[in-house]
Amino acid sequence: MTQGNHSLTDRIKNIVVAWLISSLLFGLLAIFVYVQQKDAAKQSVQAASELIRLELDTQLRNIDRFLKQAEQLNQACDGRTISLMREQVFVNPALSEIGIVDQSGRLLCNSFGRLDPAVQTTEPIKQPGLRYHGPIITDFLQVPAFVLARTRSDGFEVNALLPTSWLSDTLDITRHKNLAFIALLDGETGVPIFLRGQYTLPLGEVIFPMRDEMEFEGGFDDGTQKYIFARPLAALPQLTIMVASDAKQLSTIKPVWLLTLLLLYCASLVGLTMLLNYYDRRVLSSRALLLGAISRQELFNVYQPLVDATTREVVGVEVLIRWQHPLEGELSPAYFIPEAERDGSIQELSVYQIEKALSELRAIVQSRRNFKVSFNVNGYLLTCPDYLQMLHQANELIPQLTIELTERDVLSQAQIHSVLQSLVEQGVEIAIDDFGTGYSGLHYLQSFPIDLLKIDQTFVASIGMDNLQSPVLNAVIEMANKLDKKLIAEGVETAHQAEYLSRQGVTIHQGWYYYKAMPIHELKQIC
């Protein structure tokens, strides 16, 4: 596949991935908005119910306060009694009339004056507490009214008439948005005392008698879905305020939210696509840079000699790679190997390194068949057929070919066990680089076909120093001897370190005490 097609495919892939992620985020956000809006709609219904209940309770408490004081009213309906009742009607806008009824149910007088003869009404209920009945048509005003009453200790009743016009204003459904109905109900039977809107009750739900606050969302007997909130009045618990809203008002997302969600979705889709494309361009650009450097032969090998400390003879090399960058100058592997591992160009780079080494070392290895040549390999490369084929070609020219893996590569990729075994059968030596700094143990050293351990330079540096690494070095050497593993010491920088390691039986050294990594022409001078 060409790079252009690869780039196009990646862009299409990025758009699809961004679309999927954006759709998921859009769905989650839409659910969140739906839930929040539904809760807000329910709270709006509850707020309307509470506002109406508060207005009713306030007025009923004021009226009941007067009715509790009605023991002072003279049943003979003298002038002072009429004046007190008339004054109460004037100061309380919810009242249209106040009357006194005797034990037999005869209305003796009202706030308009004494009745002669008395008008027969319903006999008072001989029980304490505030109660209601009605609505009725008043004789004087000829308007529907709602009656509140209290029975006095002498059996007389004082009642107060609330015109339905006042209730109509208090329960005005037009003052509130999106309500299906507002009802003042008898809490025992559910019969509406006063109603605004189309009253209906839940299907299959027994909600009366109602003693406490309740809410319900579901199907109603008019075939609709509704949400209701109901709560008894505090001043008169026999009465309940019920407010309802159509369920569609709860579940419909407002246009402004739909527009906001759509804009967020588009922004997330564009943003994610740009981010993914930027990442791919970065990867592709780094890959293109490295592949371009390979084609221009800006990458070159240097060779770190392996020295036999007993003879000072160079017995092999570790092949390292550098980049002669046209702008940055010479770059060490730390600047480009991690990027190559991320973008996949590590395979091309490693194949190039081996090809370069085979060309440069050909004369040395042909004249010295025991000359060791070592390459650093990560676990990913051991899964690449092209790289493994190149290792096979290198092994045909270099009898003492070694590959160095880190402990992490060995332990994190158990599937490479068979690959390593195959390489060993071909004659390739397997080494663990920086041994002791990872997390391998005897189990892995015995399970994997490992021939050589390279002692990490941090342990070599501890020689002659009293620190935590000092005893570890001796332990590593002892363990290698017991497991019959060969050892190479890295980072040897002083004569004292070299002598100590030699006394411990570690005779192959690598480090600046002997040589630094060098280009091929310098290596040929010492070999």
Explain this structure.
The protein is α/β, with parallel strands linked by helices and 527 residues long. It is built from 15 helices and 20 strands. An 8-stranded mixed beta barrel has the order 12-13-15-16-17-18-19-20, surrounded by 5 helices. It has a 6-stranded antiparallel beta sheet with strand order 3-2-1-6-5-4. The protein is rod-shaped and about 145 Å long. The N terminus is likely disordered.
Briefly note the structural class of the backbone: alpha/beta
Give the assembly state of these chains.
Answer: single chain
Distance between the termini: 44 Å
Strand content: 15-25%
Nearest-angstrom radius of gyration? 48 Å
Helix count, DSSP H or I runs of 4 or more residues: 15
Share of helical residues: 40-55%
User: What is the overall silhouette?
Assistant: rod-shaped
Strand order of the largest sheet: 12-13-15-16-17-18-19-20
Largest sheet entry: 8 strands, mixed, barrel
Mean pLDDT across residues: 87
Question: What labels describe this entry?
Answer:
527 residues; alpha/beta; eight-stranded mixed β-barrel; six-stranded antiparallel beta sheet; 25% strand; rod-shaped; c-di-GMP; cyclic-guanylate-specific phosphodiesterase; EC 3.1.4.52
Explain briefly what this protein structure is.
This protein is α/β, with parallel strands linked by helices and 527 residues long. The protein contains 15 helices and 20 strands.
Question: What's the structural blueprint in terms of helices and strands?
Answer:
Layout: H1 3-68, H2 79-91, E1 97-101, E2 106-110, E3 113-120, E4 131-137, E5 144-151, E6 157-163, H3 164-170, E7 181-186, E8 192-197, E9 214-219, E10 225-232, E11 239-246, H4 247-251, H5 255-295, E12 299-308, E13 313-325, E14 329-331, H6 337-343, H7 346-367, E15 372-376, H8 385-397, E16 400-406, H9 407-412, H10 417-425, E17 429-435, H11 442-447, E18 452-455, H12 457-461, H13 469-482, E19 486-490, H14 495-503, E20 508-510, H15 520-526
Parallel strand pairs: 13-15, 15-16, 16-17, 17-18, 18-19, 19-20
Antiparallel strand pairs: 1-2, 1-6, 2-3, 4-5, 5-6, 7-8, 7-11, 9-10, 10-11, 12-13, 12-20, 13-14
Helix pairs in contact: 1-5, 5-6, 7-8
